Amino acid sequence: MGERTIIPFGPQHPVLPEPLHLDLILEDEKVVGAVPSIGFVHRGLEKLVEKRDFHEMMYVIERVCGICSFIHGQGYVQTIEGIFDLEIPDRAKFLRTIWAELSRVHSHLLWLGLMADAYGFESLFMHCWRVREKILDIFEETTGGRVIFSVCKVGGVWKDIDNETLKKIVEVLNVVEQESKDLTNVFIKDFTVQKRTRGVGVLTYQEAIDVGAVGPTLRGSGVAMDLRKLGYAAYGELDFEPIVEKDGDCYARTLVRAREIYQSIDLIRQCVSKIPDGEIDVKVKGFPKGEYVSRLEQPRGQVVYYARANGTKYLERFRVRTPTFANIPALLKMLPGCDLADVPLLALTIDPCISCTER
Amino acid sequence: MAEVQTFQPVTASEIVDAAKNMLNEGYRLIQLCCTKTPSEMDIIYTFEKTDLQSQNFKLPVNIGDTLPSISSVFFAAFLYENEIHDLYGVNFTDMAVDFKGTFYETSVKQAFSITVAEDKE
Amino acid sequence: MSGMNSWIAVVLYIVLAPIIGGLIAGVDRKISARMQGRFGPPLLQPFYDVFKLMSKENIVVNKHQKFYVLCFLIFVIITGCIFFSGGDLLLAIFALTLGSVFLIIAAYSTYSPYAYIGAEREMLQMMAYEPMVILTIVGMYMVTKSFNVVDIFTYNQPLIYTLPGIFLGFLFILTIKFRKSPFDISMSHHAHQEIVRGVITEFSGKELAYVEIAHWYENVFLLGMVFLFFATNWAIGAAFAVVTYLLEIFIDNNNSRLKWQFALGSAWIVALILGVGNIAVLALK
Amino acid sequence: MAFNVIGKTVMKSLFGKPATAMYPVIKNEFYPNTRGNIQVDMEKCIYCGICGRRCPAGAIEVSKPDKKWEIDRTRCIVCNFCVQVCPKNCLSTERHYTSPMTDKSNRISTFFGQTVQEDA
Amino acid sequence: MNTVLFLIVYPVIVALLLLILPQLAIRKFIVVASTAILTAASIYLTATYFNTGAVFFEFGTEALNVGIFAIELVLAATIIIISIKHKQFLAALLMLIGAAMTIWFEQTYGEEIHVANNLFVDNLSLIMTLIIGIVGSLIALFSLGYMEEYHHHHHDMKNRTPFFFFIVYVFLGAMYGVVFANNLMWLLFCWEITTFCSFFLIGYSRDEIATKNAFQALKMNLFGGLGFSAAIILLFMNAHTVELNQLSGLASAVVLLPAALLAFAGITKSAQMPFCSWLLGAMVAPTPVSALLHSSTMVKAGVYLIIRLSPIFAFVQGGATVGLFVAMVGAVTFVLTSFMAISQTDAKRVLAYSTIANLGLIVVCAGIGTYELVWAAIMLVIFHAIAKSLLFLSVGTVEHNLGDRVIESMDGLIVKMPKVAVGMVIGIAGMFLAPFGMLISKWAALEGLVAANPILTVFVAFGSAATLFFWTKWLGKLIMIKEKPADFHPHVPGSQSFTLTCLAIMTVGVCLLFPLISKYSLEPFIASIYGHAYMLDQSNVAILLIMMALVLVLPLRLLSYENLNYKPQYLAGTNLSEKEKFYGSLGLTRDLSMRSFYLASIFGEDKLFKLGVVSSIILILIMIGVGM
Amino acid sequence: MSYLPKSPWLVHYDASSCNGCDIEVLACLTPLYDVERFGVLNIGNPKHADIFVVTGSVNEQNKSVIQNIYNQMAEPKVVVAIGACATSGGIFRECYNVQGGVDKVIPVDVYVPGCAARPEAIIDGVVQALGVLEEKYKKMGKVAK
Ligand code: NFV
Ligand code: SF4
Ligand code: SF4
Ligand code: SF4
Question: pLDDT at residue B120 above 60?
Fold first, then answer.
């Protein structure tokens, strides 16, 4: 008998490309209970450290996720470099920053598109992804891959970007900026979009901190926390402020991401103007020994890496704590009381990346 | 660039209080990370402040040990604890949400509890 | 229309409506694609889709669903037949309602959570647009003193002059009926929806094709309704029907999907303000 | 708040040229950096096996006695590591991806050095 | 004439017999026989008079009047005593006032009252006769098996079945009295008896809620009865008549206030806002009671009276305004109760709300009172009586098998109890879908209203939309196809399934026959009052019949499907090999479960009810004010 | 000739993909590649779909999901495995929770290698799948006769 409506939401579900499962318990369309389950993407790749040496492991870690792939690579090598206490050439740092910020632009555009799709705004989705393709072209041109770059290595980067291309990138970014403006305007101003996002899934300042939210989810609730302020890679030499919105609802989080696109474009421009000439890598000798925790800012928020090495070519343990993992409690906070129609929105509002989460 | 990192040791009985302390000092939980090597096994608790300062605790454990959950202090901890339970076979009491071993349904149970080095021995 | 003529109209409707409806759907997809910066499918794509569905294996959750879907198709066709033979407009709407109810219970009968929510939402939508539909007909009667499409059709002045509010209100709910954003709540043409494909989640193969064809018939009927507002002149009427549809495509591509609360609320408010307002003006005259 | 904010973009697209690249009617141009199919120059290969050992995906198999160099294309993750580590620089990456296949047995490409008959 | 008397008296005799002969077998025999007899007599009466126009009977003696007066006083005294025993002083007071008015009226004017025709028959009475005779006695038949089971399910309750049947048959007699009476005082007498019957039946179980609700019903109906009495007194004082058929010939100044008061009485009896709460409360009564009194007959007495008044609204000067407000009360009731029905989970409550809503619609039609609308109103009465009693009785049957009557428990009923479910589906379809009866009448109502008062169509438009919603969702629940639980063995006694079958066939049959009913019964009746009759458009009738035929024939298609490949529902990939289960979070195996939308935040009772009470009270006050 | 190759509808399931192949599948739908030109729709519901596109490898938990989706599709149907993970397990082949390519649990008709598989490769793969679809349709017809 139908006391409540129970809906198995996912793992295969058209609105969430990713296999997250929720048992949604509904009354009318109100969600009165939501129990998540994950594990559909769990591969256990962290354990591969026992079979891949610490150079090869870079390629594994990159494939934690195909969206934030570059920063995973960067985070991995940074952690190993942290164990080695290795200083890499400045140009490599800048190049990493450029790619990282490009990744952020692409990731945010991708997310904006998916978000639009979640509330049935198909044309907006298409246009976001159309613009995003321009970034992917830059990736392919500079690294050889559209989504997985394989350019980081312990001690630097594999490929250089010549200054010509850097200029070209800035030009492309000018176009992207222009076109994104038209699109982010829709997210900011459109009546129907606001109707769907305003006041939905509110996470207050304190709640956001308590549940351990990170990234735009956290900043959308007014907490100015951005790991790039740690000054890793070239961020120490760049000028930026974390982007913060107060309301803590889907709208605020959308706004944060929309504005971060421009921030990232600006950072890349700064990088291009400041990038020094020189080497792009240093030789790495010997094997790492020790342990290290490093934190980076992914498009989705803070990512934490932990590595422990014992002086052989295999690490003993490598672990990634990804932003989505940290944001799931926030999602669980937001779900009860929303409408079924809001569920995809809320799921997307933390920008879930299940493959990151489960590794 | 490398910041100085400390791993402050704690014991199972202290961990909840340590977590409460951290909470009072304005820290929040960043991660629980379990590590198993052939010789030792420990859980690292990482906390962080909104000004990005961080603090690590290291708690030595063994497979089959039962630890108190800190999810009453930091709600988010239940995810890590369930994960560690499923992958390492460390039990936690009073988790905010207890998946009872269905967090990751892996074909190899508690896969991380054996390391390659041990395997070879 | 005399007896003979109305039979011809019925036959023409039964034969031509799916062709026109399919073409409209094709144009719709093409234009939508272009609006999204894409090249888009071939014009005849909807027909390919339907033919393909016809050739698929028959899978069902239970056999009742097939029967209900068949009824849905039949009663939607009957609706158009009543309409295009110049019959009673209210009766046509009742037949359409019956058809829609068959679709809904087809979804219900599958006992599938997604189809179920879709069905509930479909009912909400019906509840949302029903008043305005009835008010539209009431308005037409007040002007022409008849419920018969023939009489409305041959009325000596375009209805739009006297029923502007009702026309706008009707346009509004037409978005619901065409299943366009922002009101494609219960099922939408593109699948990326929280309830999968809503009402039609559990249909496949032939039934899905039937549902599609029924929508073509229904769309032609609805455009016929639009046409009635301009009926004194064939060309203008047809032109407005086309413009209306283009407008719907435009709206579809310009809005996100809203929730049922908004669909119900806005449709009722529109019915109350535009519909009742217009009727009140007519009544006072 | 405003309505139809995207209207301008939409109308521009409607009357402009679609962004579609029309693949496969028009073939795509790849960049010089593009990574794709791994190719081996058997003339230069010394069967040292470094590529095979270091390939993170374990896609390459080298057999010195048979003078054989073999790659499983469905395993290869196109990371270019083998190209970068080969001491003889005999590996290269094509600017074209491996084509899809309906028959899984096509996944393995085998190359033999000159001394062995190429009849497989 | 004799048949008329027979119909009034026979049920009362049966009632007494049933009371003094409590043996089950005898009861069974009597009830079955009476069903046949009443049905036959009703049909016979109809056959005799259906094309004679109105026929009046002088019948009546002084002794009879004295007898009626005496019975009235005895009953009043009984009610007052019972009320005081239950500390229901308001009820006692109302009864006291009513009795006082009657006594005073008898004392003051008793001598002067001369009634030419005490009884009469016309086509409207005949239609009511058929409803009472066939539907009513079928329900009595249904009660046979039902009451047995009822006490089986409620063993802690005292078995007072003989009393139950006594009241039911007294009620039937009274109901005949209501529809045959031309003398308003007789009408009032029968009217009050139906009130008392309702009171006793609602309170049948004698538990706290039942008693409370019974008194609520009593109070409200007595209150309406006061209006009735007042109307009679005024009428006699000003116009020296107490005859129903004279009313529409009277001068506007004389008749308007009595008409308004009578309409008021009708409104209370047919449970319109603000009095609808009594009918909702009445749902505690055993289900046949709900079917008999609270949907197909007694509440129909209310609208019957208003329909009788509609010539006044239509012809008498100033009557239209009174009628408009009567109609407005109906309209408000229709819309709001339709809305509120959406938020109900209890099947009987949904039926109750829908009943009130439909009565509201009838009141709207009768209140405006043009010939089309009267046609529609009477059609509504017919279709509603049959379909609604079918639904009530099915719910009763289902309740005994499922253990409760929550709509949510009925999912998959078509699998669990196919026959009953099909009956219910017919009943529900009959309530709101083309080509079934209610819809035909609603259609006529709409057409009539547009011509007469377009603004009222707005109410109908919105109310109908809500109707669509709550019926469809119920329908959906019934026809869900799901696995049949292995341990479920429904039991439906023969008397019940016979009744249900008859009613289901009648629901469909009446729809098929409605052109004939209209042509031979309604049209002459309406023509006799209005001078011209509502004619159905023949082509529309043809289309309706075609649709009807399709609806009846298409299900045959179900038999012919083959080569189907059965696949379980799409569950996002979490299906288990067991049907209707999926693998949920936390490693749980979950059953599919679905709950309809109730939209309590929008259509919740509390807000809407208040709104309805306030607005309808204002409307009623204006209505009576206009009458003055 | 059937109309199957003119209107292939996809259902896409992300097994344990890293999202790399996933977003490339999605990218195929978007303006630059726009597979709707061939009538392809990402319909998201196995009951409506003709082509099952799987990215990522099979693991303990998604094994049954893949099978369920496959079973719920109506004949004729084809499976396209996209990316190194789905074709062979790719780089994660040796992970403890990876059981290998999709062909471990359901029959696969087209293998699209790459990591991540490029949109062009995916389009090629789908085009090849259309051929398979047509063949299966013919076979199905024979069985019916
Ligand atoms: N969650 C996550 Fe990632 C990001 N950003 C990261 O570590 O996307 Ni797949
Ligand atoms: S590393 Fe180069 S030389 Fe050595 S086996 Fe591989 S291809 Fe040949
Ligand atoms: S490209 Fe990478 S995966 Fe492919 S063969 Fe070379 S090293 Fe192995
Ligand atoms: S093949 Fe590569 S890109 Fe595709 S899912 Fe697997 S790891 Fe990710």
Answer: no
Proximal ligand: closest to the CA of F23: 4
- Strand pairing report for D108-112 and D91-93: unpaired
Band (D115; pLDDT cuts 50, 70, 90): low
C55 touches chain D (CB under 8 A): no
- CATH superfamily for A4-358 is Cytochrome-c3 Hydrogenase, chain B (1.10.645.10)
Bridge partners, residue B49, by sequence: B27
Query: Which chain F residues have a beta carbon less than 8 Å from that of E579?
Result: none
Phi, psi of E185 (to 5 degrees): -70, -40
For residue A26, give Cα distances in angstroms to A192, A337, C113, D69.
24, 9, 11, 59
- Give this prediction's pTM: 0.91
Gyration radius of chain C over CA positions: 18
Cα dist from E602 to A201, E340, E372, E476, E607, whole Å: 22, 9, 34, 21, 9
Enumerate helices (H) and strands (E) in chain F, giving the number of each: 4, 7
Q: How far is D52 from chain F (nearest CA, A)?
A: 13
Taking a C-beta distance cutoff of 8 angstroms, is the pair E548, C41 a contact?
no
Nearest to C52 by CA among F49, A59, E298, A349: F49
Q: Which amino acid is at C281?
A: V
- Give distance in angstroms: CA of D77 to centre of ligand 4: 8
Task: Please tell me the total count of domains within chain C.
Answer: 1
- Judge whether C218 is closer than 8 Å to chain E, CB to CB: no
- Regarding the beta carbon of F84 and ligand 4, being less than 6 Å apart is answered yes
Is residue F115 within 8 Å of residue F85, measured between CB atoms? yes
Question: Could you tell me the residue range of the domain that residue C165 belongs to?
Answer: 3-284
Ligand 2 atom closest to the CA of D47, numbered from 1: 5
Whether A17 shows a pLDDT value over 80: the answer reads: no
Q: Can you give the pLDDT at residue C2? A: 55
Instruction: Give tens-digit pLDDT for A304-340.
Output: 888 888 888 888 888 888 888 888 888 888 888 888 8
* Position in ligand 3 atom list of the atom nearest CA D78: 1
Q: At A87, is the pLDDT very low, low, confident or very high (cuts 50, 70, 90)? A: confident
Domain positions in chain A: 4-358
User: SS in 3 state form for A181-199?
Assistant: HHHHHHHHHEHHHHHHHCC
Specify the pLDDT at position A312: 83
Please report, for residues B98, C79, E2, the alpha-carbon distance to residue C150 in angstroms, rounded to integers and kept in the order given: 69, 15, 52
Give domain F7-139's CATH number out of 3.20.20.370, 3.50.50.100, 3.30.70.260, 3.40.50.12280: 3.40.50.12280
Residue nearest to atom 6 of ligand 4 (CA): F85
Note whether F96 contacts B104, CB cutoff 8 Å. Answer: no
Q: Tell me, what's the ipTM?
A: 0.90
Query: Other C-beta atoms within 10 Å of C115: how many?
Result: 32
Integer-rounded Cα radius of gyration of chain F: 14
Q: Which residue of A has its CA nearest to D93?
A: A144
Please state, as a whole number, how many other Cβ atoms lie within 10 Å of the Cβ of residue F2. Answer: 18
Omega of the bond prior to A36 within 30 degrees of 0, cis? Answer: no
* Distance between CA atoms of residues A201 and E485, nearest Å: 40
The bound ligand whose nearest atom lies closest to the alpha carbon of A351 is 1
- Residue in A17, E586, A196, C59 with CA at minimum distance from that of residue F27: A17
Ramachandran bin of A248, using left for φ above 0, alpha for ψ from -120 to 50, beta for the remaining angles? left
Residues of chain E with confidence (pLDDT) below 70: 1
Q: Which CATH number fits domain D30-119: 1.10.10.10, 3.90.1150.10, 3.30.70.3270, 3.40.50.300?
A: 3.30.70.3270
The answer to whether F76 contacts C56, with C-beta atoms less than 8 Å apart, is: yes
Q: For residue B116, is pLDDT > 70?
A: no
Q: Please report, to the nearest 10 degrees, the dihedral formed by the alpha carbons of residues A38, C197, C252, A21 taken in order.
A: -10
